[in-house]
Amino acid sequence: MFSPHGPSLRELAIQALSSVERGYDLLAPKFEHTPFRTPDAILDATAGALRPLGPFERGLDVCCGTGAGVGVLRPLCRGPVTGVDFSSGMLAQARRAHPDATWVRADVRALPFDAAFDLAVSFGALGHFLPAERPALFAGVHRALRPGGLFAFPIGAPPPVSTARYWALQGFDLAMRVRNAVWRPPFVMYYGTSWPRAVRDDLVAAGFSVTAVPLTALGRREDGSPRCRLLLARRT
């Protein structure tokens, strides 16, 4: 599916019936050829918004997957860059693509770092965390940053209720809830549990000072508001 080099429907079905970790281990060799990989347009817009705020020293890619975020961090950071993920399969692909970075296998809900980084980024990962799990994730990133350090990630605006996209996302989340109610292990991937206001509140509760920058290069909605913003959470 998706491209001649992407996973087949059967491979996607096997992934969807696995745990999140096992599913991404299976998907890893073909992940770059799926729509799940963060588009270059989002990576480039994020890098452009962060560039005036740097330079930074050490960088961390949270839920790094195959390492796309390292391409954002490397030109922004004068020091070493690290990626962390719990999928050994995804990390293996990341090591091949970026052998000069450091790769750490860990559960990001319990990050093994203490005041080690100046900039942390994350792309496309929030849907893998239930709302009750976000406080542990954000507390770990807060702890991993040095005082004054920045945690940045793009977040899309909620689609209007009147749009087909809104109902498509609601349908996907409903299907995922049904799947998790009748099948074990669960596969956590929801689109409607991490809207900007709730995420901002959790960041503030974790000790961050939060602002947002519109990523206008990614387009605007019909009301003129940006489709996507970059959340900037600073450890004060």
Please tag this protein with its features.
single chain, 236 residues, alpha/beta, Rossmann fold, 2 domains, 8 helices, 7 strands, 36% helix, globular
Short recap of the structure:
The chain has eight helices and seven strands, in the order αααβαβαββαβααββ. It has helices at residues 9-16, 20-27, 40-50, 70-76, 88-97, 134-144, 164-182, 196-205; strands spanning 59-62, 81-85, 102-105, 117-122, 145-156, 208-214, 228-235. It comes from Nonomuraea monospora.
Strand order within the widest sheet? 3-2-1-4-5-7-6
CATH architecture of the largest domain, please? 3-Layer(aba) Sandwich
Shape: globular
Structural class category = alpha/beta
Distance between the termini: 45 Å
The CATH superfamily of the largest domain is known as Vaccinia Virus protein VP39
Average residue-wise pLDDT: 91
Using the CA coordinates, give the radius of gyration: 17 Å
Description:
- With 236 residues, the chain is of the alpha/beta class.
- The chain folds into two domains: 1-37, no CATH class; 39-158 and 195-235, Rossmann fold, CATH 3.40.50.150.
- It has eight helices and seven strands; from the N terminus they run αααβαβαββαβααββ.
How would the blueprint of this fold be written?
Blueprint: H1 9-16, H2 20-27, H3 40-50, E1 59-62, H4 70-76, E2 81-85, H5 88-97, E3 102-105, E4 117-122, H6 134-144, E5 145-156, H7 164-182, H8 196-205, E6 208-214, E7 228-235
Parallel strand pairs: 1-2, 1-4, 2-3, 4-5
Antiparallel strand pairs: 5-7, 6-7
